[in-house]
Amino acid sequence: MLRVDVTKQLGEFSLEASFESQGRVTGLFGASGAGKTSLINMIAGLLRPDRGIIALDDETLDDTSAGVHVPPHRRRIGYVFQDARLLPHLDVRQNLDYGRRMNRLAADPAQFTRITDLLDIGHLLDRRPGKLSGGERQRVALGRALLSKPRLLLLDEPLGSLDEGRKEEILPYLVRLRDEGIPMVYVSHDAAELRQLATQIVMLKRGRVTALGGVKVLTQA
Amino acid sequence: MFEISPAEWTAILLSLRVAIIATLVATPFGIALAWLLARREFWGKSVLDALVHLPLVLPPVVTGYLLLLTFGRRGLVGAWLADHLGIVFAFRWTGAALACGIMSFPLLVRPIRLSIEAVDRRLEQAAGTLGAAPWQVFATVTLPLALPGVLAGMVLGFAKAIGEFGATITFVSNIPAETQTISSAIYSLIQTPDGDAAAGRLVLISIVISMGALMASEWFARRATQRLHGN
């Protein structure tokens, strides 16, 4: 379970969001500038709330009144960025292995093969990110986040930088991922995308939560 | 004309040793400082920044004299080091290395700092979300991506160190086989009636070394860039 109750002032923009999510895939829906990315950056620990609480399952990740702030590298929250952010000096295999190495986990070849099969990236392992297409990059970023064995996976418009054709190419993989059972927070401004993926919706408008509930709240959008 | 005498060889080898040691010892400090200046905000940052650049604008003789006051036999730090660790800088080649290291430090730090500033912080954030602690992010993302700048800084620092004259001669004098580098040997030779030929040889050699260093710097930078962005 993810519990978020935070406020954050970013220049002129104020973000005040409170929601709880039990869902497997929480869709964070809103127009650009609604504060979606700031919100998941706070969940990831990349941004500190001015006030409030963020808790995942039984662990408090942020509690400003108690001075608690768990740094990103100790949260075990995977993050798939809109722009993939693969490490350019490492090949695909090293990128996929990065989280495991940093967390000093034993190699798990079976899981590695399963994820690379799931995402169809097995043939790309020796390439550098610079030689990948946009869709391939995004699939590697997904695999990289998954292989760091996160408790929660954040996806910030993972299809945002792709054209329509590419989106259709990635979407089935995201559906497969959802069925893997790792809880996800999926950020998008595309209601159709969220209808296919999300089990619960948090609607965000100009820094405020305006609706909470099942996928049907999207029809009000 | 081109017979290099043993005394000249001594000066050449000493210069190389002084510049190499100065560069190797200064590099870790340079990287740490460059990172601090590029990535951290703290009280006194502008003072530290100015301090690093001071040897660049101060008359070298002033830097040398300050070194003599600090690291000389009776200097505050020099006396302590000599008594407790047995390390002596005054009138030794180690002192020449110290002077060269400090004089070349601004040139070493600058390219490293610029290349660290150029590393995309979003990549560092991504590494953090994958479980990399800040020191791991530095070792596996920041430093490898800044490597061209580190190499460029090292070679530039080396080139400056090998040509250093003013601070070195002020601090450790001009003792053949101990502190007489190529520069101070040239200085001595051009004040000697028949020194022109020997001075000319050393001048040529110092041009060759400096050119070689600059070309090596270019080559390293190109290779590192290829490694980072190619294939």
Automatic annotation (TrEMBL), chain A:
Annotated family: Belongs to the ABC transporter superfamily.
Entries under PANTHER family matching the protein: ABC TRANSPORTER I FAMILY MEMBER 10
Upper classification of the organism: Bacteria, Pseudomonadati, Pseudomonadota, Alphaproteobacteria, Hyphomicrobiales
UniProt function note: Involved in beta-(1-->2)glucan export. Transmembrane domains (TMD) form a pore in the inner membrane and the ATP-binding domain (NBD) is responsible for energy generation.
Gene3D superfamilies: P-loop containing nucleotide triphosphate hydrolases
PROSITE patterns xref list: ABC_TRANSPORTER_1, ABC_TRANSPORTER_2
NCBIfam families, sorted: modC_ABC (TIGR02142)
Species name: Bradyrhizobium retamae
Keyword field: ATP-binding, Nucleotide-binding
Occurrences of domain ABC transporter (ranges): 1-221
Protein name: Molybdenum ABC transporter ATP-binding protein
MF annotations from Gene Ontology: ABC-type transporter activity; ATP binding; ATP hydrolysis activity; molybdate ion transmembrane transporter activity
Keyword Nucleotide-binding belongs to the record: yes
From TrEMBL, chain B:
CDD domains (alphabetical): TM_PBP2 (cd06261)
Membrane association type: Multi-pass membrane protein
InterPro entries: MetI-like (IPR000515), MetI-like_sf (IPR035906), ModB_ABC (IPR011867)
All residue ranges annotated as the ABC transmembrane type-1 domain in the record: 12-215
GO molecular function: molybdate ion transmembrane transporter activity
Listed PANTHER family: MOLYBDENUM TRANSPORT SYSTEM PERMEASE PROTEIN MODB
Gene3D superfamilies found in the cross-reference section: MetI-like
Cellular compartments annotated: Cell inner membrane; Cell membrane
The entry's keywords: Cell inner membrane, Cell membrane, Membrane, Molybdenum, Transmembrane, Transmembrane helix, Transport
Record function comment: Part of the binding-protein-dependent transport system for molybdenum; probably responsible for the translocation of the substrate across the membrane.
Segments traversing the membrane: 12-38, 50-72, 84-109, 130-156, 202-221
Family: Belongs to the binding-protein-dependent transport system permease family. CysTW subfamily.
Protein known as: Molybdenum transport system permease
GO cellular component, one term: plasma membrane
